[in-house]
Design brief:
The protein is α/β, with parallel strands linked by helices and 420 residues long. It has two domains: 2-50 and 345-392, Urease, subunit C, domain 1 (Roll), CATH 2.30.40.10; 52-337, Metal-dependent hydrolases (TIM Barrel). It contains 15 helices and 16 strands. The strands form two sheets. Strands 1, 2, 3, 4, 5, 14, 15 and 16 form an eight-stranded mixed β-sheet that branches. Strands 6-7-8-9-10-11-12-13 form an eight-stranded parallel β-sheet, sandwiched between helices. A hairpin with a 2-residue loop joins β15 (381-386) and β16. It starts with a strand and ends with a helix.
């Protein structure tokens, strides 16, 4: 048992003074009580919030942080990222993912949805760091039937391997410009057979949307609907270039959209996700950082700020509130993944973050949610608890220095070989 004493607890958007008792992996009591526990955390000067969800990333792309900056998306992919990814192996993915898990935990993220290669390597990193995750087996078919069959067999194998880990699973067809409609249809069929998720890039750029319509004579969303691809299993990243009717259709089908503001701005995708229409249509919107290659950070506190500022800049100051960003990173994601986290309630999972209210970005604290979204950063994170276990204490992850050292050596060797 863990007892958090005398903390300020975020409940229903307000801070209340309370103790929080954790038994096994759940919150068992909240209120004014005393209890003999195995471990007591002095919560004085700390605020307790739900752990954050990063609903779209490519964890192992910490390897490419700063490697290919200031380039348009397609050029970035084709000339820099894809050639480098062809040299990946499970060892470098494991260490790069481990670094990503630590970065996310230290900035208050307790769950992430990943799309990348060698997912079992990432699963090992997830288990060793204690974070929660939904891991995807990613594939492309480039409209080649033989390549589709080869990759679907690999996906089936990787999904079987992931059953041995404490993770949720997903199939991850990359996007409509790299995967055929047949590949997308079979991805969803596989997800339904396995009762798992589908993780997908959707309408990230205008070029993607225009070229799809030229090729198929219809919009992406209507074509996806025709093949049975739209349903609550689908987690669609970006969703920038969607029309009003497409947003409405996605909402009716229960699809989840993921806002990735920092990556979208950095890769200059041309406009902002239409959150006002999504909110009006009751489309469930989540929040993600994307990978460290196109964001350079996996800090969800920072991402909440970007989401709010981009929406206000594009749609007006009253179009978006701090609480909208916070819900994207907590309750909305909890609903999408069917995980009883994202709120501090008795019976819910003990995935919690303790923030230091004495840090400068948190001072003064007129409104904790506003501080979280507009001023907080990883320096404000004191303690992180996932599944009832302390994984970050006093802002530090155990052995992080050794992990950084090992990863740095592997990175130097990887890029040295890439140049030869």
């Amino acid at each position: 048992m863990i007892l958090i004493e005398n903390a300020r607890v975020l409940r229903d958007g307000k801070l209340v003074q309370a103790n929080v008792l954790l038994e096994e992996n759940k919150i068992s009591a909240i209120g004014d009580f005393k209890d003999k526990s195995d471990y007591v955390i002095d919560g004085k000067g700390l605020a307790v919030i739900p752990g954050l969800f990063n609903s779209h990333t490519h964890a192992a792309m910490t390897l490419f942080r700063g490697y290919a900056d200031d380039m348009p998306l397609q050029e970035w992919l084709e000339k820099k990222i894809w050639p480098a990814e062809a040299r990946l192996n499970d060892e470098i993915v494991y260490w790069a993912s481990k670094l990503a898990c630590i970065e996310m935990l230290k900035s208050g993220t307790t769950f992430f949805l990943d799309m990348y290669f060698f997912p079992s390597a990432t699963a090992r990193a997830v288990e060793e760091t204690g974070i929660r995750a939904c891991l995807s087996s990613a594939f492309f078919d480039f409209f080649n039937k033989d390549l589709l069959e080869i990759n679907l067999k690999r996906v089936e194998k990787e999904l079987r391997e992931l059953r041995g880990y404490r993770v949720l699973r997903a199939v991850a067809p990359h996007a409509v410009y790299t995967v055929s409609l047949e590949g997308l249809k079979r991805s969803m069929e596989m997800a339904e057979e396995e009762n798992i998720f589908v993780h997908f890039h959707l309408a990230e750029t205008e070029k993607e949307v225009v070229e799809f319509r030229k090729k198929y004579g219809k919009g992406i969303v209507s074509a996806l609907d025709e093949i049975g691809f739209l349903n609550p299993r689908l987690i669609s990243a970006h969703c920038v270039w969607l029309e009003k009717d497409e947003i409405g259709l996605m909402a009716r089908k229960g699809v989840n959209a993921v806002h990735c503001p920092a990556s979208n701005m950095k890769l200059s995708v041309g406009r902002a996700l239409n959150y006002p229409e999504m909110k009006n249509s009751s489309l469930n919107v989540l929040l993600g950082t994307d990978g460290a290659a196109s964001n350079n950070s996996l800090d969800m506190l920072r991402e909440m700020k970007f989401s709010a500022l981009l929406q206000k800049f594009y749609y007006g100051s009253d179009s978006f509130k701090a609480v909208d960003a916070f819900r994207m990173a907590t309750e909305n994601a909890s609903r999408a993944f069917g995980i009883k986290a994202g709120k501090i309630e008795v019976g819910w999972l003990a995935d919690l973050v303790l923030l230091d209210l004495k840090k400068i970005p948190m001072t003064p604290c007129h409104d904790l949610v506003a501080n979280l979204v507009y001023s907080a950063s990883s320096e404000c994170v004191d303690t992180v608890i996932v599944d009832g276990k302390i994984v970050v204490e006093n802002g530090h992850f155990e052995s992080e220095e050794k992990i950084i050292e090992k990863f740095s050596k592997l990175t130097e060797n990887f890029f040295g070989q890439l140049k030869t």
